[in-house]
Design a protein that fits this description.
By secondary structure, the protein is an all-alpha fold. It has three domains: 137 residues, no CATH class; 129 residues, no CATH class; 70 residues, no CATH class. Helix content is 63%, strand content 0%. It is built from 19 helices and no strands. Helix 3 packs antiparallel against helix 4, helix 4 packs across helix 5 and helix 17 runs antiparallel to helix 18. It is globular, with a radius of gyration of 21 Å. The chain starts with a helix and ends with a helix.
Length: 363
């Protein structure tokens, strides 16, 4: 007798988060933690290791909350699966490097105790715990979050736009060079040397030219979320994630491809440019886009189960991220996009159960 749709849906919901992945959950968690920690280290090198303090505070709080909850239910041995550490480090990536560690602690406890375990633990939550912890901090203390980002490239850019500054080429970096109080006015010698090397080798093959200032942006000591300040290390981490098959590699490829296309197509208008003038490099390397694409959007625990569902969620998330950031005035629109897509997950899985799995069962 064919299973009912509700039974199939329950079976679908109960699948482990590592389904269809080459690497088990424990390995995935520790590899993601390693990649996130690399970005934390890069950010720490230019802020007196305050980024490291934020990350350690989040990890300690997450481990304590996880231990108390698991111990209460007799599952303390599950602490070694690394999910609490991964959640805390991902949360740290999304936080400003100058915010008080108290907020990292509160966000980590909320992520573990409320978002993760109130829905049944690892693999049962429909919302990514790190993104949920970030949202809690952002909404509970918007003043502290905003104050911690004062002087960051995205904050300076927003202030410039509010004063009517524009760039005919639609370049956000061009605006920062003109109206950033001298922070990005002139490229450093290191930026000039490395830019010249890439322009003479890689970019010369395509006839393109990399403008000055990007390396300074990536390695700047200016405030910002830790992921943006550690973007070079994060790029290396994404290579590790892809090479070790932590997640399906095509998910971040689709997400970033759609987002970059939209930025190139219509991302210059807000900065005073025209069609096909959007700055993809700036957009991809700021606003937490990389951890969203490679970690949050590709998280199997908070994703659809079918490839078609995952593809649709990736495209929708990238589109929302673009509109939230460029036309919604939200610099970290990529993170909000993940939260919206996660919120739709129960509906997506119900649709999958009815239209994909129910048909396969012959009912």
């Amino acid at each position: 007798m064919a299973e009912s749709t509700s039974a199939l849906y329950e079976k679908l919901q109960s699948q482990k988060p590592q389904v269809n992945l080459a690497r088990p959950t424990v390995g995935r968690m520790w590899l993601v933690s390693l990649c996130a920690f690399m970005a934390v280290i890069q950010s720490s090198l230019s802020d007196g290791f305050f980024s490291l303090l934020i990350a350690f505070s989040a990890v300690a709080a997450a481990l304590l909350a996880e231990f108390l909850i698991l111990y209460q239910s007799g599952r303390a041995s599950q602490l070694k699966n690394g999910s609490a550490v991964a959640t805390a480090l991902i949360l740290a990536l999304l936080l400003p490097n100058t915010i008080s560690p108290i907020y990292a602690i509160l966000g980590a406890v909320f992520a573990i105790a409320v978002v993760k375990h109130s829905f049944g633990g690892l693999g049962a939550n429909w919302l990514n715990p790190a993104a949920g912890g970030w949202l809690f901090i952002r909404l509970a203390s918007p003043g502290a979050f905003g104050k911690a980002l004062e002087g960051s490239p995205l904050s300076l850019l927003a202030e410039s736009l509010s004063r009517g500054f524009a760039n005919p080429q639609g370049s956000p970096l061009g605006i920062l060079k003109i109206d950033s109080g001298g922070v990005f006015a002139q490229a450093s010698n290191l930026d000039t040397v490395i830019r010249s090397f890439f322009n003479d080798t890689v970019f010369s093959l395509t006839g393109a030219e990399l403008p000055g200032g990007y390396l300074d942006l990536f390695a700047a000591g200016a405030p910002g979320i830790i992921a943006d300040r550690g973007v070079l290390a994060l790029l290396a981490g994404t290579i590790i994630i892809t090479a070790t098959q932590v997640n399906r590699a095509w998910i971040p490829a689709v997400w970033l491809g759609v987002f970059a296309f939209l930025v190139r197509l219509a991302g210059a208008f807000v900065f005073g440019g025209a069609w096909w003038g959007g700055d993809m490099i700036f957009a991809l390397s700021t606003g937490g886009v990389l951890p969203v694409a490679f970690i949050l959007a590709a998280d199997p625990a908070t994703a659809a189960k079918s490839n078609w569902g995952i593809l649709g969620a990736s495209i929708a998330g990238a589109c929302l991220a673009f509109f939230f950031r460029f036309y919604g005035g939200e610099a970290y629109g990529a993170i909000f996009a993940v939260l919206v897509v996660n919120a739709l997950l129960p509906i997506v899985r119900a649709f999958e159960a009815r239209h994909f799995y129910d048909k396969r069962s012959g009912s």
